[in-house]
Amino acid sequence: QATAASPQPVDRLTLRGAAHFAAMFTRFVEPGRLALITYGPCAGKMCTIVDIVDQKRVVVDGPESVTGVRRHMMPVKRLSLTDLKAKVPRGAREKTLKKALEGEEIMKKWSETSWAKKLKAKETRASMTDFERFKLM
């Protein structure tokens, strides 16, 4: 009676690759981290984390002249952290923050990401009139 050979046990590391387990979380809540506000009156706008208040709250700033977000306290839950980070000290003034964002071209780098492009396309589609949608077809 012929029996099929039972499959050999496969090590998980060889299946997924060792690099999969070595990857580490990199989007930390830290001063200078660029974030997207997902809820509230400033939803859809970009901001920069300036200071950490406690485990759940941070102080964010646009700066207002760049993104339209004033300096205020906000729960981390309402933010989507990005990969971009400016080098600013904790509790930096608006002038220092603006200088760092311009010097490192953070907003330019953000506008080149696929995430920003998708948001821009979504915004454009939402603002289209019926005739503009018809012309697209």
Per-chain topology:
Elements: H1 12-16, H2 18-22, E1 33-37, E2 46-52, E3 57-61, H3 64-67, E4 72-75, E5 79-85, H4 94-103, H5 106-111, H6 114-126, H7 130-136
Antiparallel strand pairs: 1-2, 1-5, 2-3, 3-4
Which tags fit this structure?
alpha+beta, about 140 residues, five-stranded antiparallel β-sheet
Walk me through the structure.
- The chain is α+β, with helices and mostly antiparallel strands and 137 residues long.
- Helices cover 36% and strands 20% of the residues.
- It has helices spanning 12-16, 18-22, 64-67, 94-103, 106-111, 114-126, 130-136, and strands at residues 33-37, 46-52, 57-61, 72-75, 79-85.
- Strands 4-3-2-1-5 form a five-stranded antiparallel beta sheet.
- It is globular.
- The model has no long low-confidence stretch (mean pLDDT 87).
Helix content: 25-40%
Number of strands: 5
Number of H/I helices: 7
Strand content: 15-25%
Tell me briefly what this model is:
Helices cover 36% and strands 20% of the residues.
